[in-house]
Every structure is written in C-alpha cells, then in structure tokens.
C-alpha cells in the first residue's frame, strides 16, 4: 500500500502512524497489543509451532498453534550497554538512550554521551542546546552526511555502481564538513552505502552536532578505559568528571530467549546464520523478517519472500491433498 500522492519526502511521525493504522484497517490485521511472547517451540509430532504469549495487562497466558512462525521482533529488542570497569559504582546517573527524554533536566551538568551513531549525535546536540557541558565518546570510524547527500546517493545507486556513488558522497561530505579527523571523527575505509550494505551501520545524518564540535562546545573523546566514582578515564589517560552518562550504544536481539528450536536459522546472538539474501528461512516453517541489518528496504524484501514461500507451501499442500 503506497503513501498518499501528496505525502512529503520525509514522512512526519504522526503521518507515519496514520499510515500504519490505515494499513491495518485495509488488510484486516488484528494486532495483539500489550502482549509479550514467552516462548515458541516446535512440536515435532504435530509438525507445528506452539507459542505462549502473556497479556501484560491481565497476566493471562494465551496459547497459539501455527504451521508457520515468523520472527519479526527485530534486531533492536533490548538495550545494549557495554561492560566498563567501574560502571556499576558510577556515582552519577547512567541511562541508555532508549530512556532519554530531553536535555532540559541536565542544564549546567557535565554530560557524557557514549556512541556516535545518529542517536548519540542527536542526544549530544540536544544536551548542549539545553546548556549541558557535553562530551561524546567516538569509539569507531563514522561517516557524517546531510540528509540531502544520502537521498542523492540512494537515488544514484539505483543506476550507478555503489563504489562510484560512495566516492561522490564522501567528496560531498568533505566539501560540506571539511576534515573532521582533527576533531576526533575519522571516516571508515568503506563508503557509506557499501558499509550499510555489508554491516548494517548507517551514516550519521548531521543535525548540527558537527558545528558544535568544531566550536568546542561539544568535546570529543576516545573510548573509556574505566570509571572511578564520577570520574571517567579515557584510553588516552585523560580524565573528566560527569554527572550523567547516556549510552547510545545500540540494541541487541532477544529472539533466542524465547525461541526454542530456532538453531536452523539464528545464531547465538539471535541473528541469522546465513548472509543476506539467504537468511530469512529456517526449518519447519520458521522465518525471520528484519534481522538482516538492511533497514526498511531489507524488511520489505524479507516480507515478500516469506509471503511468497508460505503461499507456495500452502498451494503445494492443497494440491497434494487433492
């Protein structure tokens, strides 16, 4: 189902939610809200999946039986916070980015953001804009782009080899932002589109953070070595005290905690064993959508493959019965 013809290029949140509601109504989908999956197990004797789900508002557990099971819980199910010596004894406030609301509560405080992806960069900008003394940990190389540059790249790559497009995007980024390495931000060796394709890591879309870094309003640090009280020591042996640390360090899949008999498809991290595009199908009617780190486009590919495969299996079974 396409967006309305008058929809803007960048869809606002409220309009996206409205689209989802319209999609549900059109295809008569019946979501089970406030429901948490507890377990999914394959019954070898009956050749079906038995799923137990709990209504979190009533604590009632419901049992489902199905021929097919699609794992669509995403690769970002639970907050991921790295193990850092001394973190548990940090005397300030330590939160994951999923719990961050606004920088208004941290005005005048010393704030450290760990992680330089889109969330980390935006949170750092918000903290600084609300008057926090802001620092950010840049742990790995990252591409910084504008949304216009990325949109151009996504258009060109449909007709031009990705290495040529990536080279153009990097040149445009250098023109807009200059050499960021002297500010502690280093580019990856692979181009932004190829990196996204191979690893799922997206380029950072700058919202003004780079400008504040260049002005020295936001300070850049390398990785953290340890924490002692409210003092953070970095790998270069420099130390600073902080009132709050925000971990914009991503998420992890939790599928393996509730999916039993999923070893044909998922590894120990709850992600596909096989590489894209052969990752989406396991054994015994098991599938996964949105676990290949390919964004919305990858989810769409998964969904079509799964739907077609289920339909093919259904038609084959029906033919054999006749």
From TrEMBL:
Catalytic reaction list: indole-3-pyruvate + NADPH + O2 + H(+) = (indol-3-yl)acetate + CO2 + NADP(+) + H2O
Cofactor(s) needed for function: FAD
EC class name: oxidoreductase
Keywords: FAD, Flavoprotein, Monooxygenase, Oxidoreductase
One matching Pfam family: FMO-like
Keyword Oxidoreductase included in the entry's annotation: yes
Single Gene Ontology MF annotation: indole-3-pyruvate monooxygenase activity
Gene3D superfamilies documented for this protein: FAD/NAD(P)-binding domain (3.50.50.60)
EC id: 1.-.-.-
Family to which the UniProt record says this protein belongs: Belongs to the FMO family.
Name of the molecule in the record: Flavin-containing monooxygenase
Organism phylogeny: Eukaryota, Viridiplantae, Streptophyta, Embryophyta, Tracheophyta
């Amino acid at each position: 189902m396409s967006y309305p013809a008058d929809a803007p290029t960048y869809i606002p949140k409220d309009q996206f939610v409205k689209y989802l509601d319209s999609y549900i109504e059109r295809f008569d989908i019946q979501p089970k809200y406030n429901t948490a999956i507890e377990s999914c197990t394959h019954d070898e004797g009956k050749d079906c999946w038995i799923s137990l789900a709990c209504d979190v508002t009533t604590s009632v557990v419901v049992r489902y039986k199905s021929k097919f099971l699609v794992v669509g819980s995403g690769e970002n199910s639970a907050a991921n916070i790295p193990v850092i010596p001394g973190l548990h004894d940090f005397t300030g406030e330590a939160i994951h980015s999923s719990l961050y609301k606004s920088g208004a509560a941290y005005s005048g405080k010393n704030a450290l953001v760990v992680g330089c992806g889109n969330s980390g960069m935006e949170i750092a900008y918000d903290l600084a804009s609300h008057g926090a003394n802001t620092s950010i940990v840049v742990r790995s190389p990252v591409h910084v782009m504008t949304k216009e540059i990325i949109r151009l790249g996504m258009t060109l790559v449909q007709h031009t080899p990705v290495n040529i497009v990536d080279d153009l995007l990097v040149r445009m980024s250098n023109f807009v932002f200059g050499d960021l390495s002297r500010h502690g931000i280093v580019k990856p060796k692979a181009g932004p589109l190829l990196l996204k394709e191979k690893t799922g890591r997206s380029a950072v879309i700058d919202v003004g953070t780079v400008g504040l870094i260049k002005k020295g309003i936001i300070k850049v640090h390398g990785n953290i070595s340890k924490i002692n009280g409210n003092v953070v020591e970095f790998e270069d042996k420099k130390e600073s005290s902080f009132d709050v640390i925000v971990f914009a360090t991503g998420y992890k899949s939790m599928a393996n905690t509730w999916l039993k008999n999923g070893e044909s498809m998922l590894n120990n991290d709850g992600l596909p064993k096989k590489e894209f595009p052969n990752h989406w199908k396991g054994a015994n009617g098991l599938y996964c959508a949105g676990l290949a780190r390919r964004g919305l486009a990858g989810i769409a590919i998964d969904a079509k493959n799964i739907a077609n495969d289920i339909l093919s299996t259904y038609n084959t079974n029906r033919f054999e019965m006749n």
